Amino acid sequence: MKIQLLTYPDMTLLDMVGPLQVWSLWPGAEVELVWKSTDPVPTDCGLPVVPTRSFADASETTDILFTGGGLEGTTRAMADPAVIEFMQSRGETAQWVTSVCTGALILGSAGLLQGYRATTHWMALDALSNFGAEPIKERWVIDRNRATGGGVTAGIDFGLALMAEVAGEDIAKAVQLGLEYAPQPPFDCGTPEKASPEVVAAVGKLFEGA
Amino acid sequence: MKIQLLTYPDMTLLDMVGPLQVWSLWPGAEVELVWKSTDPVPTDCGLPVVPTRSFADASETTDILFTGGGLEGTTRAMADPAVIEFMQSRGETAQWVTSVCTGALILGSAGLLQGYRATTHWMALDALSNFGAEPIKERWVIDRNRATGGGVTAGIDFGLALMAEVAGEDIAKAVQLGLEYAPQPPFDCGTPEKASPEVVAAVGKLFEGA
Fold it and tell me: Taking CB atoms and an 8 Å cutoff, what residues of chain A touch B190?
């Protein structure tokens, strides 16, 4: 199982690490963390990470192609011809083309969501229409060989769901137990429908300051 | 809010990135990722990360001291005098001494859980007694200024709960919504009590191969 994850500056680290932690337990997984070079890149939470392959050295084909999201870093990646070219070239032949959070906007910019049902972070959901995708308000969406997850923490659910789809429920269940994934969120406010208007308003300010 | 996170080789990356992603949105957060040097360290899921401070350059005091867990990497850290010395020196004055997953065994080795209620990954829970701690089977445990989370994914719940305790519920709720934390695990098997005996047995094999 060959897995390529786009590893770009200022990405939201948890978008990637959720599915990566799940998929790293995939028997026979070969993980490539891909960027322009293998110099460290900053992430949005202060921990720099080190890509393991450059675009030039990445395998020419992959079973899973993945990108997470972020704020300004994602906007820059969407407008970067080198990123778009890489995503298009691998996306054309990948068995699965996938994203978490606003990573879907990068897939969209590369033309990879045209005509597909897809999801993303709740704040960005409407933007999917700009790329010819049909926005779906679900935790994750699988449409043919496109698999997209919602915002940030959705990557864990998405990662396990895709693993179950591809490798079967037995291994996905073992990974879920291994990662002790029996979540107990301290509050019931993880979607804008469930949160109070005050909490929804506070999120905008939070991301301005980030 | 000064936060120091032990960033050691072969740690389980999601143990750290769960709370780190939450706490990076803490207004005024100063995050230090601390290890012996600032050379990149490998993690258990194939993504190397870069510590931002050496033990020598880390702030002498911190508000939150944190360590995540792992497999062999954690065992090595528990037996490493430089790690123990660092954890003891910061743990003595930290406002909060914290861990996720088998990070609790590192706190224990540094003598920081003696007489405290604490939790860790379900596979390691009994081992807490070796360090004079009282093992508690909960998603997270706060006992005086010790805060410990269960296995891997528990770090998100733990991170939000500690933030609510220290900074108040308003900010923690905004972060929870910002990270779209409304989990939908694909299976109901995240604890050994809920999983089938076959799934429990499969986890042992999974970690042998990891």
Answer: 176-177, 179-183
Task: Yes or no: say if A148 and A119 are a contact pair by the CB < 8 Å rule.
Answer: yes
Cross-chain residue pair A177–B190, CB shorter than 8 Å: yes
Helix (DSSP H) and strand (DSSP E) numbers for chain A:
7, 9
Put simply, the answer to whether A176 touches B186 (Cβ < 8 Å) is yes
What is chain A's mean pLDDT, rounded? 97
The verdict on A160 touching B (C-beta cutoff 8 Å) is: yes
**CA–CA distance, A69 with A107 (Å, rounded to integer):** 10
Please list, residue by residue across B40-75, b when 16 or more beta carbons sit within 10 angstroms of its beta carbon and e when fewer do: bbbbbbbbbbbbbbebeebeeebbbbbbbbbeebbe
> How many whole angstroms separate alpha carbon A171 and alpha carbon B187?
12
Q: What is the pLDDT of residues A37-73, one digit of tens each?
A: 999 999 999 999 999 999 999 999 999 999 999 999 9
Q: Which two tokens stand for residue B148?
A: 């410990």
Tokens representing residue A154 in the block:
């959705």
Strands (E), A104-207: 117-118, 134-135, 140-143, 146-149
Rounded CA-CA distance B64/A155 in Å is: 27
Q: What are phi and psi of B45, to 5 degrees?
A: -115, 15
ipTM above 0.90 for this complex: yes
Rounded to the nearest angstrom, the minimum Cα separation between A79 and chain B is: 24
At A155 the three-state DSSP class reads helix
CA distances from A83 to A145, B159, B180, B181 (A): 21, 33, 26, 29
Domains assigned to chain B: 2-184 (3.40.50.880)
Q: Is the pLDDT of residue A160 over 70?
A: yes
Chain B hits for A12, CB-CB cut-off 8 Å, are 21
Q: Is-contact B17 A14, C-beta < 8 A?
A: yes
B56: helix, strand or coil: coil
Blockwise average pLDDT, block size 10, chain B, 210 residues: 98 98 95 98 97 98 98 97 98 98 98 98 97 98 98 98 97 98 98 96 84
Residues of B that are catalytic:
101
